[in-house]
Design a protein that fits this description.
Layout (H helix, E strand, L loop, with lengths): L11 H19 L11 H8 L3 H14 L2 E4 L3 E4 L4 H25 L2 H19 L3 H18 L3 H9 L1 H12 L4 H17 L3 H23 L14
Antiparallel strand pairs: 1-2
Length: 236
């Protein structure tokens, strides 16, 4: 029986369509298909994504909350320009949160957690071998999620998640830089070795070194001082 209250039933089909459209547009921004400063025209996006204008508007609003889209008065939505200052602050926060998570993980993670970290690292290596940016990004996010949660840092992980879109955007830049296909996994391997050794000091130190190196590369890419590797692509 209905008491006149609004229905709470979830429309699964519409929600799935919005989610898919959101993922597609987010990936297009992260992969530089849409570059910083590019206008995001609703009518064009309706045709490109094959969804309604209502869905496009909701996706754009969501991406604005993630920091990937900015709405400029009299111009409309466009891909956000990530500044040096913003990038520096994101990497500073990563250093604080990830260093603490690495220390906690070394102290309390289980052997199964270490096995899961190793599996994520192998997926990262395979992603690089296949020039698949999305696989590298997804596996890297999984690596950090395991590290945070196995150390009991669930609140810290929630904070990371609020920055995840911009972290992923910056990470896509760094993993596409020359030589990162070897140096990136090697740095994560050092972190994992310290974690397995239960050496909290070394785990924190190697984690901080990794974030510092990634931050330096991201700033160089933002300033166009080093090119991105065109071989690294998102799957179509």
């Amino acid at each position: 029986m209905s008491d006149g209250s609004p229905s709470l039933k979830v429309d699964r089909e519409i929600r799935t369509l919005r989610t898919l459209a959101l993922e597609k547009l987010r990936d297009a921004i992260v992969s530089m298909q849409f570059k910083p400063g590019d206008r995001l025209v609703e009518r064009a996006l309706v045709e490109q994504l094959g969804v309604s204008r209502t869905v496009v508007r909701e996706v754009l609003r969501h991406l604005e909350t993630e920091g990937l889209v900015e709405n400029i008065p009299h111009q409309g939505p466009m891909v956000a320009r990530l500044t040096d200052s913003t990038a520096r602050q994101i990497y500073e926060l990563r250093s604080i949160l990830e260093g603490s998570a690495a220390r906690a993980c070394a102290e309390s993670a289980s052997d199964q957690d270490f096995a899961s970290l190793d599996a994520a690292l192998q997926d990262i290596r395979r992603g690089y071998e296949q020039h698949d940016i999305k696989q590298v990004l997804d596996a890297t996010t999984r690596f950090y999620e395991i590290m945070f949660l196995s150390g009991g840092k669930d609140v810290a992980w929630d904070i990371v998640q609020t920055l995840n879109a911009r972290i992923t955007y910056l990470r896509a830049m760094t993993i596409s830089s020359t030589g990162r296909n070897k140096n990136g996994p090697t740095e994560l391997e050092r972190i994992l070795a310290a974690l397995r050794a239960r050496d909290a000091d070394q785990a924190e130190a190697t984690c901080l070194a990794h974030v510092k190196e990634a931050g330096a590369i991201a700033l160089q890419v933002l300033r166009q001082e080093i090119p991105m590797d065109k071989a690294m692509t998102f799957p179509s």
